[in-house]
Amino acid sequence: MLKERLLVLIPLIPAAVAVVMAGGWWFAISVSIVLGITGWEFWRLFRRGGFNPSAPLLIISPAILIIMRYLMGFQYADLALVIIIFASMAIHLRRFEHGCETSALDFGITLSGALYIGWLGGFFVSIRTMPHGEWWLLLVLSSIWIADGGAYLIGRHFGRHKISAHASPNKSWEGHLGGIVFAAVFVPLLALLWQINAPEITPIKGLVLGIILSIFCILGDLGESMFKRHFKVKDVSNLIPGHGGFFDRIDSWLWAVPIGYYVILLLK
Length: 268
Fold this sequence. Notes:
Structural class: mainly alpha
Number of domains: 2
Strand content: under 5%
Largest sheet: 2 strands, antiparallel
């Protein structure tokens, strides 16, 4: 399994970094595709559990929100949300008229999935369009990778007290603390390196960003684990060999990018 994961990561990480550095439409379209696939995985997970959310809306809504965020920032975001809410209600009302018994719950599932994936995912674009946004975004994502690596390393050897016995029994408070320490040590070093190209990114800002993200973004991981435990599946899909699905990979990122965006604004 470890070998399979590494074989996937070796080409995947440079490709992801290249897309972040490229920015522009390449970045916006790439994020739209990833989040659209994530929306499909979300639909597939709940469909497996006997519900019937709207696959088209879960796939298309994230792409719409990403493109609008890229073109207009937060302008007209309220209009996009109104359209998604109305569309979800219209779709599930029609299905109810055709005999779907879960339509009331399906409305909530469709709406929550579209907003959770699409609205939060839009902050990938919000960070990237900042001045030196490519370096800020790489620092945010690196903070999660570093914290996850530290949590795994410390938790594997010293983990005793479970954070969430039901959602993710392998995660421990000791591991979580280890992830915070790793982020506090290594993210400022990355910030120092990034400062060569982006003078506004300082080690102190890296320290603050790394600590905050490592503390809170585990909730994204635990939330997705809650879904999987509820429906008794290991991964939401098998699209990424050795890693599960896209939702399995970006669960913490969906928390990291909005938190990171507002922390960066406060640090400027």
